[in-house]
Amino acid sequence: MQNPDPTPSFYCAAGYKPEGSVGYLMRQIIAHVGQEVERQLAHTELTNAQWIPIYKLYTKRASTVAELARECQLDAGATTRMLDRLEAKGLCQRKRSEEDRRVVQIALTEAGEAAAAEIPRVLSGVQNANLAGFSTEEFETLKSLLQRVLANSQAIAAKAATPKTTTPGGPDAA
């Protein structure tokens, strides 16, 4: 019995149409969800780029600038600019760690906590609206399939991040 090829060929370069790809569809969904969340949070004056870090701080997924940058997949400069805007709005404060001066802690202000407390209600409503017409079984199947795609993506990223080792005299040796 042959092992199935772990990399299927669902797409072909000849005649490739991005709008038919799973990646394109996921990006479109993310864009529409983000726009609707931003619209529903307009009264908080939080943009799509701002409610995400506020929510990560609120849910304790990050408490330092470095953690927040990793969680939001931003570089240090973009994180600093975003935190500058959030601080100017009075939503968070930065403070150097007393134990390690290289570490900058971030805390939500009272206004930041209040704004963040609305996010779960908005996210739930927007996501439920996007799943209109789905049965519970279809919803669970969709989540399972997306988790498989995510696991594949994470495995590809991990493999790419692993330094390639060469064997002296092997095929990769110079």
Automatic annotation (TrEMBL):
Keywords: DNA-binding, Transcription, Transcription regulation. GO terms for molecular function: DNA binding. It comes from the Bacteria. Residues 19-151 form the HTH marR-type domain. This is DNA-binding MarR family transcriptional regulator. It comes from Rhodoferax saidenbachensis. The lineage of its organism: Bacteria, Pseudomonadati, Pseudomonadota, Betaproteobacteria, Burkholderiales.
